[in-house]
């Protein structure tokens, strides 16, 4: 069961739900590694000067200082990273001489934002990022590969009872070129306005476009018409063309997004949709942008987002263009184990077998049985006290441990499945639980 | 290869060494879970009031504040946790109604200390903790179980080339009872002095005992004589008794440590030693204390420490006594992959197979082969560009990827082991690499 932590915005799970979270993370890692992404882990802190670069983000940063700091600390103040992209960019520049490009990495760590907590939004949360970064250039096909790897990762999560996803793609150049072609110049204002569409609706976006981007009625309608376009394949392009706007950057974006949709449609039909209202808040994207909906849970917001960036990382001499996506693991968890629980672990402990203790003086016998079972890969606990067997069985029952082992030098060993009550003689060198009982299972909770 | 990060005290590893670290963590987790410890993950921040409780530790705490914080933030300032025990204690009290006691948990996360960085000491480092916590009481046998689980965990690490360990045990009551029996009352001063023995030597400790604990010559000599005692079994007790000091608390400590050494000696001879100079810095231990030496690397300091605490966690009505140990994962890593590298990954990427691309127009064919291999659990990458095959083979070679796959619709598929140069026809539905090539291996680096 999930419990609200006393510090708002800092989710912590009970042990049974941490099993769910670990399983989610393990499956993501496995798919990322199958696709050639290697793990890195970066420090939690970066210079605030590096974190604050991204315009408005600085208000969300947690600053860090030593309680009894020395003078020199103040010269280079540090903050906690608010995503894994900025530290990754720094890591790439710092270690470039020791990396082989294109460099494919994944990274699963907490990040921190000083935002007001709300449903699915936290002050500390775990992200799982994949990025491919090139040195000076990066082939376009990675803009197909990254969302398809992410789709494969979510596909792996379905065995846990996670709903299917739909990845939504757009291209920054497409929006920018369209806006410029329609006669609008304040592109950040256009992006910010369209980005609010799901939250505030078309009328309010039209007003924002007027107020902040100086759009007249025709321009507002063109932008809204663009934002309404979506398709499960490359069909979106004809609809854009039909709007009658033209600009070289629009052509570039259209061609690129078409390529992505065609390749995705060939390789994994129905997985990636073009949805032209996707804008993404962060400044650094320069090509494809992605969001990911959990089908049936669109209200949760995107569970995996990202895009192409051409100039995030640079050391002055070389640039490191990249494309990546980031899973909001904590956001996903908040839905999986939240108020309307969808997924649960079959027990809150790893333990499959509890070895009972007949007498404290004979604890060694129980410990020896446990050692044999563990050496054979069976997670085993020994009863904490030589209480009456009924109490030892209740100890197992409270924890969902399916088997209780009885040690007796005279009559030999017996093991009881406390769910069925079935008890049988057993040899610790040979007996094993059914495969599905060996470790906790993580499964969809059936609807009631 | 390890590289010094530009921010001193914040270790970051290159991808090949992160493979080592992940393998270390995976093996620790596996052994902890085999022994019935479940995972939890706590937030990185605690109220500074909770972190500063432990006397002198407050100077090491990193305080956290929102860059553009609001008034109410200042009322309850937060800091980054400096260990995993304090957050665990808070977690236990906060969630007690939802936990089953004795509660066995492990926790592997970074911790932060504002200390001056030095060899094996960092400002951000990963710890791996196990603790058993009872409600109001905790059976003594867990003081044997915890160091033996830790010994089993280090034993599992030996397959990676990690040297064997020796766990050193003492008991706080033994030292305190001995000091009181010898007529000394300022126990914290005695503990602090003895704790410095390895760093400053006997003469300096004698002076400290005189200056800070008011010890006369006889008392100094008694303390040093006690601190010299060590044994691989319960033999230490006779040596202590021979010193002629008596006190009820000393008897209690002697009996308890004897019980631990006897049980450990029966279950895993030679693993746990009594070493009576072990004092531990932190205030909260009340019984057994442990340190762990990497044999042949004693200069590194303890790689796993802990002890018994009776009153760390309490909600006023109930107390939660516990016993635990904490592995310094980053400290261990600093030796394994540091200047005198002991351990290395066989390649810096997960990938076992690189599928080459004959022509960009035929990239789909290569992608399809890769999908088939991945679906069969084989980590596979596709060449980033349809360059000359020599260049694609060098791409694999630079990353240590052992196999390159050639796709040809006419002549069929071939796979080349680029280490031997051997090339053979292959079916992606059937072919598999040798088991030892499937994932990167982590192995001892042979001495040169």
UniProtKB/TrEMBL annotation, chains A, B:
Q: Where does L-histidine bind?
A: 83-85, 113, 127, 131, 280, 284-285
The alphabetical list of record keywords is: Aminoacyl-tRNA synthetase, ATP-binding, Cytoplasm, Ligase, Nucleotide-binding, Protein biosynthesis
Catalytic activity field: tRNA(His) + L-histidine + ATP = L-histidyl-tRNA(His) + AMP + diphosphate + H(+)
Domain Aminoacyl-transfer RNA synthetases class-II family profile, by residue range, is 20-348
Q: Name one GO biological process term.
A: histidyl-tRNA aminoacylation
Top-level taxon of origin: Bacteria
Q: Which GO terms describe its cellular component?
A: cytoplasm
* EC number per UniProt: 6.1.1.21
Which InterPro entries has this protein been placed in? aa-tRNA-synth_II, aa-tRNA-synth_II/BPL/LPL, Anticodon-bd, Anticodon-bd_dom_sf, His-tRNA-ligase, HisRS-like_core, HisRS/HisZ
| Pfam families xref list | HGTP_anticodon, tRNA-synt_His
Molecular function per GO: ATP binding; histidine-tRNA ligase activity
TM segments?
none
Task: State how it assembles.
Answer: Homodimer.
* Family, per entry: Belongs to the class-II aminoacyl-tRNA synthetase family.
Name this polypeptide is given: Histidine--tRNA ligase
**Which organism was this protein described from?**
Brevibacterium yomogidense
Ranked from the top, the taxonomy reads:
Bacteria, Bacillati, Actinomycetota, Actinomycetes, Micrococcales
């Amino acid at each position: 069961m999930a419990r609200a932590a006393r510090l708002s915005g800092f989710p912590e799970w009970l042990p049974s739900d941490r099993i769910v979270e670990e399983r989610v993370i393990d499956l993501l890692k496995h798919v990322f590694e199958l696709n050639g992404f290697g793990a890195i882990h970066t420090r939690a802190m970066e210079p605030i000067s590096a974190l604050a670069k991204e315009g408005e983000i600085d208000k969300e940063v947690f600053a860090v200082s030593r309680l009894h700091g020395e003078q020199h600390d103040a010269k280079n103040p540090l903050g906690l990273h608010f995503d894994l992209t900025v530290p990754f960019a720094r890591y790439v520049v710092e270690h470039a001489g020791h990396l082989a490009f294109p460099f494919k990495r994944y990274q699963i760590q907490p990040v921190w934002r000083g935002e007001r907590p709300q449903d699915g939004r936290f002050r500390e949360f775990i992200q799982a990022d994949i990025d491919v970064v090139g040195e000076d250039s990066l082939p376009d096909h990675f803009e197909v590969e990254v969302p398809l790897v992410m789709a494969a990762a979510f596909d792996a999560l379905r065995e846990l009872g996670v709903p299917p996803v739909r990845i939504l793609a757009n291209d920054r150049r497409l929006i920018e070129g369209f806006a410029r072609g329609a006669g609008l110049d304040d592109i950040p204002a256009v992006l910010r306005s369209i980005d609010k569409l799901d939250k505030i609706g078309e009328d309010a976006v039209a007003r924002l476009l007027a107020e902040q981007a100086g759009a007249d009625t025709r321009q507002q309608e063109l932008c809204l018409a663009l934002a309404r376009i979506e398709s499960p394949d490359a069909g979106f392009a004809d609809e854009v063309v039909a709007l009658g706007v033209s600009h070289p950057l629009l052509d570039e974006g259209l061609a690129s997004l078409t390529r992505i949709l065609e390749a995705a449609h060939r390789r994994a039909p129905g997985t990636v949709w073009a949805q032209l209202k996707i804008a993404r808040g962060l400044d650094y994207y320069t090509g494809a942008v992605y969001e990911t909906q959990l089908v049936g849970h669109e209200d949760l917001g995107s569970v995996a987002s990202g895009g192409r960036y051409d100039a995030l990382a640079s050391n002055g001499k070389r640039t490191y263009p990249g494309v990546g996506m980031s899973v909001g693991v904590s956001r996903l968890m908040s839905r999986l184990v939240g108020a309307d629980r969808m997924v649960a672990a079959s027990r809150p402990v790893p333990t499959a077998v509890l070895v009972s203790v007949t007498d404290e003086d004979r604890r060694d016998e129980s410990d020896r049985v446990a050692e044999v079972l563990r050496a054979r890969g069976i997670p085993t606990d020994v009863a904490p006290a030589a209480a009456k067997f009924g109490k030892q069985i209740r100890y197992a029952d409270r924890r969902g441990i399916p088997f209780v082992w009885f040690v007796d030098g005279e009559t030999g060993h017996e093991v009881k499945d406390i769910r069925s009550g079935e008890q049988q003689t057993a040899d610790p060198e040979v007996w094993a639980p059914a495969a599905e009982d060996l470790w906790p299972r993580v499964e969809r909770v059936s609807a009631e």
